[in-house]
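B., you asked whether I could sanity-check this one before it goes into the benchmark set. Here's the sequence:
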Amino acid sequence: MHSGKIKKIMRERGFGFISDTDGREVFFHQSGLVGEQMDSLKEEQKVTFEIENSPKGPRAIGISIVKEQTDMS
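And here's what the prediction gave me:
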């Protein structure tokens, strides 16, 4: 499992890029989102994901938004 932040979103085209914690930029398509829609994504939002090799290079799949935990103390 990888983690990173949404770097760029191209909503009208259905894809974007994630900047992972290793500094790599990874392509994602809206079909790789889990339980989310493109409209709910924001740049700089934290996500977790898997990487698969596609004919055009690495691609993020199984993308989930990291829910911010609130301090209940």
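One thing to flag: Strands lie at 2-10, 15-20, 25-29, 46-54, 57-65. Otherwise nothing jumped out at me.
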